[in-house]
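Re: that chain you flagged

S.,

Sorry for the slow reply, it's been a week of failed gels. I finally had a moment to sit down with the sequence you sent. For the record, here it is as I used it:
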Amino acid sequence: MSNSRLLNRRLKSWPGWVLLVLVVVGFGVVGATRDRGPLDPGDRIDELSRRVACPVCDGESVYESRNPASEAIRAAIREAVSQGTANDDAILAAIAEAYGGRVLLVPRATGFDALVWALPVTAGVIGIVALVFAFRRWRIEAGLAGVANDEDYQIVAAERERLGDAGGD
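Prediction finished late last night. Pasting the structure tokens below so you have them in one place:
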């Protein structure tokens, strides 16, 4: 077997793909959880305002909206940040308690909210894995069927002639 065919076969083996997926997921996790450093109060207020939906507007965050309800929420965020006693999660929890959980644009990472976001991702991963196994099984079954020989071509030609398929291809 030539070196290129051997290398090609190794690249197509499943441990290589598993390693590739783990590296990509690892980079994604590192990128998503990377700390950007401390925010100044103005940036922190803006960041929190972007994570809360306007309770009366459709599709706008508190940061974007100029509705009086959004102004009130921004003022509450500004007050909480200026006091400096609560962290971001506590501020968002207080807003969610006051206005209902539907105002949070970024779901909480616990309970039902986490489940709602995790289930579609899990279903997608399971679907992809199932497709990989199905394609592999089909490829193996196709290999077991063998390559068409002259007898197979004669059978097809005879059947086409019997059915009157004269102008086929």
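What I noticed first: The radius of gyration is 30 Å.

Talk soon,
D.
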